[in-house]
Amino acid sequence: MDTSKTPATTETGHVSAAPGQEERVWRAGGLEPMPVRTLPDAPPSVHILGPTVFLVALGVGMGESYMWPRLVLLFGPEIRWLFLIGVTLQAVVMLEMARYAMATGESIFSGAARVFKPLMWFFFVVAILVYIWPGHLSAGAAAFEQITGIPWMVTAVIGLILVGVVFSLAKVIYNLLENVLSILIGTLVLGTAVVAAMVGTWDDVVSTITGMFHFGYFPQEAMTAAWFPVIVGACAFAGPSGMQQMWYTLHLRDSGAGMGAHIPTIRGLRHAGEEEAMPSRGFMFDTDDPREMAKWRGWRRWVTFDALLLFWGITMLVTISFTVIAQAAVRQDPAVRTAVQGDDREVALSAMADSVSSAGSSVLGTIFLGFIALIGLNATLGLFDSFSRGQADMTHNFVPGAKKVKLSHLYAGFLWGVIIFGILILLFGPADGPSGILDTLAFLSTFAMGAYCVTLLLVNNRMLPKPIRPRWWTNLIIGFGAFFYLGMLFYSLFAFGVVVG
Amino acid sequence: MAGGLTLLAGRPVGWAAVSALALALPLGILGAGYGLLTGQGVIRLGVFAPAGLYWLAGFPLARLAQETAAGLTLTGEVVLAGGVAGFLGYQAMVSLGFAIGFVWLHERLMPYWLLRLRGHNPYARELLDRYVAHAEVLRSAAGRRRTRKGARR
């Protein structure tokens, strides 16, 4: 391992070396070196619960419940090969995000800053531009309105305030959110399976699954200005979209995975006083020590299980269930196909709910809308926490003077900032953002995905010690990811003049 | 959940209640059976495969019971899409999703429920002890694996 004997700064209580010993550090980029510390033991690789719940909660959204079922109805199940590629790519991205976060206890934003600080500021600005608009609340709240009659605006505003209050009262936000999201995702997976069992058939599920292996299928009508941007958008929404994978590194750190165990957790506003001093950089373990490397392999096995079974598996299951439900809906009422061809998401979801009702029981349609509301709730909880976590992390580490403020206070500031802004926009402005910049926001969201693939390549291959850098084939897949997202985005822009549908 | 949503939606309760009850009852019985088997150590805690196999058999049977009971009660006949074999095959396939959701909720909620019951229910105390022992076994097994790997080097 390429460590120096230069003593690291010891401005925080956590990082001082034993008396009389010189600190070993890992120098990565132009920022403060990382002191070498012991890597904690890895938990058993086969597990059921973990930080992946955040990524599943954020990832299982409108892409899985609406966009892909819609594309299947329009172009047939064969179009799902693109979904398979999108979600598999996201599983590899997840593994590579975890590599840096578990090896250093730093977020990928800090890794980006070590490579080139403006790169991190780019993500800071994109997060604000894309994620402060409360439009993601509308689908879930609208579904809830259909069930209960309560105006969606009222639900959305109350939901925003509740999220702020609950996160402010929590002792450790990560623990609370992992519990809540696990229960919500468990309910969603179990519930969609029951509904799919009641309305679907063997043929539906077989065509949905076999459709994933028609690689290269691309009908002529999909190559039009009307539909190609929609397909680009659906590919970007296969699994976690936008910056959600980058935020996963912060959840991984707070869960205590790998060297994240050396970093204190973010607390709710009410318990912010109990927060331990936050170190100004991460840590590195001794990659020359075979025992440490054995522990590292244990952590890699643990996160691989997370990526393949929990993330990939559950995302696949939910989208298969929703696609089966959509196919059953069209079989029951062919008018649903016309409804989903339109741009109005609420009309399409409502038509599917009505059709599902007539296919099974009247209650099934209501439950279907309940799932849409549940997905909206998951997204709101996950996005607000993730946005605040990411912005607080970057502000704390890279805005001069911000270290005087506790990370928990910064988190609360961003959280309540986005909540108050969200309420004002819901009441007085356009929920998705000003119409003049909608295209720009959609472009930035997908562009960020290509950009984080490039960032990952730079961070993992330049900022980590050689023994724990990614293999060539992993780099190839991440490189393909950058090409996939940026290529489709720019092709859509130049060939059709539209960014994302 | 179904009942609450139905009432909120102002939908006819009778039809939905029969259908929901016809599914909830067998699923509830099978869920209790799962709890008993974990309590006796037949099903291992914290892993998916045994739960997957359990629901691979249990879920299709529960759905068959539901279709039969609801069909006979509401329309006087039982119609299974794809025939009995096709119906059971499809339900077995979907049971994978049900099993994952079930295990996820079970692992998350059951220990808290057992903590509430353990004061007055010896079976709950026993099952909670099994959860604690299981966590300790996994932790020590991982420790032993690491020690063996270290010794081989």
From TrEMBL, chain A:
Keywords: Membrane, Transmembrane, Transmembrane helix. The chain crosses the membrane at residues 46-67, 79-98, 119-144, 150-174, 181-202, 222-243, 307-330, 362-384, 410-429, 441-460, 472-500. The keyword Transmembrane helix applies. The keyword Transmembrane applies. NCBIfam families: Nramp_1. This is Divalent metal cation transporter. It comes from Planobispora longispora. The lineage of its organism: Bacteria, Bacillati, Actinomycetota, Actinomycetes, Streptosporangiales.
UniProtKB/TrEMBL annotation, chain B:
Keywords: Membrane, Transmembrane, Transmembrane helix. The chain crosses the membrane at residues 12-34, 41-58, 78-105. It comes from the Bacteria. This is Uncharacterized protein.
